[in-house]
Design a protein that fits this description.
mainly beta; 89 residues
């Protein structure tokens, strides 16, 4: 999992069936202090996140397909699973 900031939307008229009826967002990974750490990634939104929201993203392995209850062969890698209200450390 990683912490990130939603930076935009992905719009596509032609897509794999795994993405049908799903909102696809661009997310920039970041450190808890707000420092951006890597290049922008793409994630399926499951909770209604919007641009500018800090989010928690489940990624790598099968976690995305398990969260969405999809066939394990579907091409999904990252899923937004939470909107972060506050970080305490």
């Amino acid at each position: 999992m990683y912490l990130g900031k939603v930076t935009g939307y992905v719009v596509s008229t032609q897509k794999h069936v795994a993405y049908n009826n799903k909102k696809i967002m661009t997310v920039r990974p970041m450190q808890p202090d707000g420092t951006e750490t890597a290049k922008t990634m793409v994630a399926v939104d499951t909770i209604g996140a919007g641009i500018g929201d800090q989010v928690l993203v489940a990624s790598e392995g099968r976690s995305a397909t398990e969260i969405l209850k999809l066939d394990k062969r579907m091409p999904l890698r990252s899923v937004i699973v939470a909107i972060v209200d506050e970080i305490q450390y």
